[in-house]
Design brief:
The protein is mainly alpha-helical and about 200 residues long.
Length: about 200
């Protein structure tokens, strides 16, 4: 493991923890009632069938609220999600987040041919290129860090994760705290992105 790069990533956690975030206090039952328009893409239980659309099940509620707020404000650009988030109130967002956070994610499987590189990047980063270890912020089991509002990753579709990493790399997605994800992804190759996304899909 590239310990210096794990440590370097850990140093950035304190800054992110100081950043303001939503304190989700939603009603999961109300969220279920409000989720009818979400179901078509994200599934009734938050496990989307299309690998290009994220699984929401088991995600930290504050992270979900943050994303919905930023879709609504245009701080995270997405032509599908912007109109979906536009009519949502703060309470709607909190209720939806509480509902999806309470669901159980359905884990996937990693491509055996990509596990070695994926695990290397996730757990140790790449010392030569300056890629920090993913687990420094997202945890060894991919459960994230709710105190710092770092999302859970374990079981997420590899396709979706790959799309997001490339969006961070190009700065098409720029709603990360202190450019943390953009700085990491900018140093990643396509092969590293594909491998770590696959590894995350099978992580549990």
């Amino acid at each position: 493991m590239n310990k210096p790069f794990v440590f370097a990533a850990l140093l950035s956690v304190s800054a992110a923890m100081a950043a303001p975030g939503a304190l989700a206090a939603g009603d999961a039952s109300a969220g279920k009632e409000k989720s009818s328009t979400c179901v078509a893409c994200h599934g009734a239980d938050g496990n989307s069938a299309n690998p290009e659309w994220p699984k929401l099940a088991g995600q930290h509620p504050d992270y979900l609220v943050k994303q919905l707020k930023e879709f609504k404000a245009g701080e995270r650009e997405n032509q599908t999600m912007a109109p979906m988030a536009a009519p949502l109130s703060e309470q709607d967002m909190q209720d939806l987040a509480a509902y999806y956070a309470a669901q159980q994610i359905q884990y996937g499987e990693a491509d055996p041919d990509l596990v070695e590189l994926g695990e290397q990047i996730y757990r140790g980063g790449n010392k030569a290129s300056g890629v920090s270890a993913c687990m420094a912020c997202h945890g060894p089991a991919g459960k994230g860090n709710p105190a710092a509002n770092f999302p859970a990753l374990a079981g997420q579709h590899a396709t979706y994760t790959g799309i997001q990493l490339k969006a961070f790399r190009s700065s098409a997605r720029a709603n990360d705290y202190g450019s943390m994800m953009r700085n990491v992804a900018a140093r990643m190759t396509d092969a590293e992105i594909k491998a770590v996304a696959s590894y995350i899909q099978g992580l549990r």
